[in-house]
Design the sequence.
């Protein structure tokens, strides 16, 4: 399906799942999303925000077109927020099974996903965040989505994110919350 768009944003990411999720939200605002490859190297920080801001500034400096960067992570309460900004590395190394093992015998399963979105589209420079609270499942369930979706059950639901369609995940997710806030501000600033 072709999108009618009032405005085009370049989403700097290597993750196609994130692009699919953000595209659906963007359509509500008549914003078109085009994926542009992200450099492999990100700065390291204990917070998501500086990582996203740095990546967005670098991307805008080289592309000189409106850019969106989104950085996210899974924060597990009983592990003092680990893996947080290190989620990508932890996913690649110990994976979902490793995280379940780390929580073996731990009663407190609370966790949250956090997303930080940065849009640079002069004169707009927008930073927004979104959080979804939930619990870590005892076993992975579902085959949709990506990353830690099979073990994350959002508050108020029985299903993991990996058992939901993209439209359903977007009703709850950290990413959808953050991009909706960011697109609302972009629309107000640029009058699109
Ligand atoms: P970028 O190219 O955009 O950086 P990425 O996959 O590395 O893509 P992030 O840095 O934003 O994405 O996320 C780090 C990791 O956190 C990601 O690899 C997943 O394992 C996990 N993660 C983030 N958002 C998630 C979500 O909505 N569902 C499941 N896992 C998620």
Sequence:
């Amino acid at each position: 399906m072709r999108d009618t768009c009032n405005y085009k944003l370049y989403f700097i990411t290597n993750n196609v799942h994130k692009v699919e999720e953000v595209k659906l939200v963007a359509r509500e605002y008549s914003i078109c999303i085009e994926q542009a490859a992200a450099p492999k190297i990100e700065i390291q920080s204990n917070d998501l925000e500086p990582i996203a801001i740095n990546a967005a500034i670098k991307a805008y400096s080289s592309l000189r077109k409106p850019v969106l960067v989104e950085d996210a992570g899974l924060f597990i309460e009983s592990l003092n927020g680990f893996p947080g900004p290190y989620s990508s590395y932890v996913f690649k190394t110990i994976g979902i099974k490793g995280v379940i093992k780390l929580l073996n015998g731990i009663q407190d399963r609370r966790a949250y996903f956090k997303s930080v979105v940065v849009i640079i589209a002069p004169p707009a420079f927008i930073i927004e965040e979104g959080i979804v609270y939930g619990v870590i499942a005892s076993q992975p369930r579902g085959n949709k989505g990506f990353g830690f979706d099979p073990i994350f059950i959002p508050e108020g639901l029985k299903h993991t994110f990996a058992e939901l369609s993209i439209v359903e995940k977007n009703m709850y997710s950290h990413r959808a919350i953050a991009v909706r806030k960011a697109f609302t501000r972009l629309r107000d600033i640029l009058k699109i």
